[in-house]
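tool=predict chain=A
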Amino acid sequence: MRGVGQAGGAITIVNALPTGIGCALGVGLFAEAEVTLHPSSRGGSVELHVAPESRTPLVDAAVRGALRQYAPGEPLTVELEIRCEIPPARGLKSSSAVASAIALAVAHARFCAPSALEVALLSAEVSRTSGVSATGALDDALAGLAGGIVITDNLLGRLIRTDPSDPKWAVALLVPGGTHSPSPGWRDAFVLQAREGRAAVQAALKADWWAAMKLNTELVERTMHYEYGAVREGALHEGALGVGVSGLGPALAAVAPQDRMDRVMEALPADLGERRVVPLLTESVVPAVRLA
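tool=predict ok
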C-alpha cells in the first residue's frame, strides 16, 4: 500500500504562544511524504525505514500517530521518503508541514480521505508530544493544508475562523541563516505578554490582518531580540500591506500585491539573509493529494 501526502508552509499573523489563539496565512512552500506500508510478522510493532537525515522525533511521532488513526493495531513495516523545500527552524512551519504530509500519506495509503482539519489536529498532537511546539501550532498546520487565513484556538483544538487570501497577493521572505530553538522553551516569556497578545488576537478577529501582524511582530521582536523595525518600515513604504516575523523567526515575511513585489524585495537587505518571493496557498491541498 502506497500513499503520497503534501502540505504547505505558512507565515504568522498572530503567534499563539501568548494567548493560545493563533492566526496564520498559507504559502506555497511544500513538504511531501511518500509512504509504502507492508504487513509485518513482528507482532504489534511498527518498523520504520527512513533516511537517517530525515529521521527526527517529530517524524517518528507523526508516523506512529497516523498509524494509530488510520491503521490501528496493525503490525506494519513503513518505508518513508520525505522531501521538504521549507527552511527548517526559521518560523516558516516546516514541522507542521512535514507532520501533515506524513499523516496524509498514511491516510491515503489506507484509502482514507480525511478533512484538512482532521489532519491538522493530528499534526498538532504530534507536534506537542514530540516537543516541537508548545501549542501544537494548529493554525500553522491548517493554513498549510486548507490555504487562506485561519484563526484557531490551539489550546482547545478549535477552528475559529477562515478567510480566503487574495490571489493578487504574494509574500517576500527574508530568511537569515540562524535558527530558533523549539517553542516550549519560549512559552513562559510569551505568556508574560498575554495582554499585548490579546490585542493582536482582537485585531485578527476583526479581519484587520495587517494591524494584527504589526502588533504581533512588535511583541515577538521584543521577546526574541530581533531588530527589524527599520526593515519593516522600508517594506511598508514600498507597498507591503503587512510585514512581520513569522513564528519565532528569524524569517521576516512581507505580504504585498504582486505588482509591488519587486520594490518590496529591494527593501529587504540582501546582507541579512536569503530573499525570495513565494505565492500564497489559496486552495486546499488535501483533495489534490493523489492516491498511488
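Confidence is low (pLDDT under 50) at residues 288-292. The longest helix spans residues 94-109.
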